[in-house]
Fold:
Amino acid sequence: MADAPDMPTVDLSTCDLEPIHVIGRIQSFGWLLSFSSDWIINHVSLNCGDLFGRHPHDLVGLSATEFLSPSALHDIRTRLQILGSGGTVERIFEIDLVGDGRFFDVAVHPSGRSFVLEIEPHEAGKRRDFVSYVRPMIERLRQASTIEQLCSGAARHMRGLTGFDRVMIYRFEADGAGEVIAESLNGMVDSFRGQHFPASDIPAQARRLYTRNMLRIISDIDDPTVPIYPATSPNGDPLDLTMSGLRAVSPIHVEYLRNMGVRASMSVSIMRRGKLWGLMACHHYAPLVLSYSVRTAAELFGEFFAYLLEQKETDFSLEKRAESMRLHDEIMARVAGGGSLLEAFDEFTDSIGQVIPFDGVVGWVDGRFLAHGSTPDEAQFAPLARFLNTAGASTVWSTDNIGAVYEPAAEWADKAAGLLALPVSRAPRDYIVLFRAEHVREVKWAGNPEKAVELGPNGARLTPRKSFEIWREERRGYARAWTDEEVASAEALRITLLEVVLRLSDAVHSEREQASRQQDMLIAELNHRVRNILNLIRGLVAQSKEGAHTIDEFADIVGSRIHALARAHDQVTRVDWSPSSLYDLIRTETAAYASHSLDRVVVEGPDALIAPGAFTSLALVIHELTTNSCKYGALSDSRGLIQITLSRSDDGSLELDWREEGGPPVAPPTRRGFGSTIIERTIPHELGGSASVIYPPEGLHALFLIPADHISGFETPGAPRRTTSVEPPEPTEFVAHLAGGVALIVEDNVIIAMEAEDVLRGFGFSDCRIAGSVATALDVLDKAQVSFAMLDVNLGRDTSEPVALALQERGIPFIFASGYGERSLQSGAFKTVPVVTKPYGERDVRAAIGRVMKAR
Structure:
């Protein structure tokens, strides 16, 4: 290993790396223009004259509608409607952009207050459904049993899809350096597998960009790039090309590839939980132009691969977690008999070794020292324990090179190089420490990592290194690194030892005191609840005598009410005194008193989770309603029906609507018994809600409001019997006039149709029908009472003109939604029909409906 000369210190974070998203140039295989929300062209690439037949400088400031064909403009407007966040790119394939028969592939994305349109020639005569390849590729990858097999398979499939000479799976390490962990070659190029690349090869600025723009391609490093005109906007800001696929790359990166002998490259980001895990890095030793469809498939494949990778890593972590649980159970079984930790030291360290491999272990508890395997002796460990008190007193602490942070470790470097320390007391004092011996290994770097950064002629500006010959580094003083899963297992073990095993430690003593205090609180709470229950039962006994004529009747009334309380308590205690289902409560009471009439009790609406403190009160109310219905109401004969509707109010409270019908005629009670008192006063008095009970002849009707304080949440019930209602905002006059009927939405794009439905429902239309074709729309008109319609002009191969004519014949108001622009419909039979131009919003639709109604 050659010694590297002294290097000047370079702060990579401040170096001029020419951030590639503001270079202001694009690669020459495509064209770029940007336009404002008013379709005024703001920027063009200087090769745009090839497309539009005019000098590029003359295009800026003009409307894009003068150069784009109506059909292309419609498609672009539609995609703009679909666009989500600023990090989204929409693609359109095989589009006649300027109406001259030439076909292009187009990408559109927002950039600040502009939209950027990137244009590439479409490959005529070649298949473009490369996305269909992705699913079988992913299915094959699912069969991989290890992460290594998964990465190797991904590299091979990516090379087959794109045709690059070399495809690498490149993983970033914690310090920013990278390692090629998998690779696929054409057989004629050198292998980079197992090689490491310094962090400066992909600086932090570039890595941040990779987290936003998933795919980058260079078709030919020797192709000239094309400037964007003007270089800046009127306020002096350059056009942000962060999400551009045509964006030129830094000359530094081009020089880096040239030094490697690479002519074309592509990278696909591999994201894991929002962070850059690595790259699919592709090299080609000749120019290589990939169509937009191939690149789209490659980007999609990269995203699916990232999901599979995360799944495999998660599976591996879960497996290690399961091993940790088994370790926990073994240790519990071995030390549960009592005594100190060191008394069972041999047994549980054997169990630890099955989950976390080590070469030596030390137990240091209450100043006692016990060791097995290759470890420092007691005299050497005592000062190490004091060092650990400052390094990791309350959590697991690990290193694979103890000598780098603790100089006295040089005395026993022949015994141990790495350690994993588990504190087993809250106060810095007691530890279980695992040791690993030195593991000498050779690291292959793609060039000398010490020379990866050199100062160029422009001062503190990075200059790409020129040598990529394998440079071997022999690493001494290091042990095999502790993996994240091993550290997580150690943390679980630490908690086990701290909270369960170390019976004589200060931490356990402190936790026992806390447990004692909690027990006192639980006893006091239990005493309070028992007294409340006893008082409640005493009240039930005292009040129930009013409705009883005999001892048997009295016993039956009291017993049924006590059983209702018992059932309610059973339900909340089954879930550890957690919020409980109102659906389950109603089913329980119905099953108890109307088992032969279960099909005649219909519950609709979202299930409510009732807080335990309110559950018993509500249980008594439901009990009284159910028993009254069985005795006098809808369930007292074979025809009656109970309709229970649950709904969530705007403030989160629960509305419970109880209606009985079909039973014998009812009349208001001549006197208020205890049951009626429970029904009418329990919720207002105990829960702060409201109760209203009326007795129309067709059946009892009760309406209750339970405040949100007693509702922990709402859930969709298991049976699909939930009803929903949309509370419209304060309607305007025209919406109030129209909203009573059906709103027809004619739109062939389901995403846009759903957005339109949301807008109309927000206006108050409770019944919206979506039609994706002319035939479906006309069928809706024949069968439903349509009061308003919103029509997309273009429906793929058809237009919505037949629907519009049918609406005019019926006198039904309607508006158009179009990507062609408003002027295209200002003539003929529909010249007075308002048009909302895509992309549109709620304000546009509301204004259009207002114009319709004003014209009427």
Observations:
- The longest strand covers residues 275-284.
- The chain has a mean pLDDT of 79.
- The CA atoms of residues 215 and 268 lie 5 Å apart.
- Residues 292-335 form the longest helix (44 residues).
